[in-house]
TrEMBL record:
Biological process, per Gene Ontology: Mo-molybdopterin cofactor biosynthetic process
Any Pfam family matching the protein: MobB
Signal peptide from the UniProt entry: none
Domain Molybdopterin-guanine dinucleotide biosynthesis protein B (MobB): 10-132
Gene3D superfamilies assigned: P-loop containing nucleotide triphosphate hydrolases (3.40.50.300)
Organism: Candidatus Heimdallarchaeum endolithica
GO MF terms held by the record: GTP binding
Taxonomy of the source species: Archaea, Promethearchaeati, Candidatus Heimdallarchaeota, Candidatus Heimdallarchaeia (ex Rinke et al. 2021) (nom. nud.), Candidatus Heimdallarchaeales
Name of protein: Molybdopterin-guanine dinucleotide biosynthesis protein B
């Protein structure tokens, strides 16, 4: 299998826990899906572990299987014991016809990324490489307008107040 990260269009959504990243990602997926654009996602979950729910596929995996696959009526779920992010991207490239991969988390990667601004923004996020913008929902923007404008101007970022604005950028930049 040829693992090529370059052929896929990838965007990252970054921020700290409970900042709305998943909500933003699911909204973007839903709206792009409505436009017939196929999206795959990869989520960083370093504090979580695969759980054993007592199902046969779990038993297979937790008995030492290096991978297990379950084919449901509405999709397929594959679990691997060890797979790097690069290999995961390679699998998505090889076995899906995704138009876009959205990576949630993995702050230190070198893909274009958008920061999710929250009430208590961690300024260390602005030191990440390849930042293209800040997502600050309208309700939070109103409360933090002065600070947001200052950072957008200082770092020359795009400011996104809605998921629609991010989608417009994705459509234009990635030619989706």
């Amino acid at each position: 299998m040829n693992i090529s990260v370059e052929r896929q269009k990838i965007i990252q959504i970054v921020g700290f826990s409970n900042t709305g990243k998943t909500t933003l990602v699911t909204n973007i997926i839903r709206k792009l899906n409505n436009k017939k654009i196929k999206v795959s996602t990869i989520k960083s979950a370093p504090t979580h572990k695969i759980e054993d729910h007592g199902k046969d596929s779990d038993k297979n995996f937790f008995s030492g299987g290096v991978s297990t696959a379950v084919l449901f009526s509405n999709g397929t779920q594959i679990t691997f014991s060890e797979l790097s992010l690069e290999q995961t991207i390679g699998l998505i490239n090889e076995y899906t016809n995704s138009d876009l991969i959205i990576i949630e988390g993995f702050k230190k990667l070198d893909f274009p990324k958008i920061i999710v601004w929250t009430k208590n923004i961690d300024l260390s996020l602005f030191n990440l490489d390849n930042l293209i913008g800040v997502y600050c929902p309208s309700n939070i923007y109103k409360e933090n307008e002065k600070d947001v404008k200052l950072f957008v101007k200082k770092y020359n970022f795009n400011l996104f107040k809605s998921d629609e604005q991010i989608i417009e950028l994705l459509l234009e930049e990635f030619k989706l």
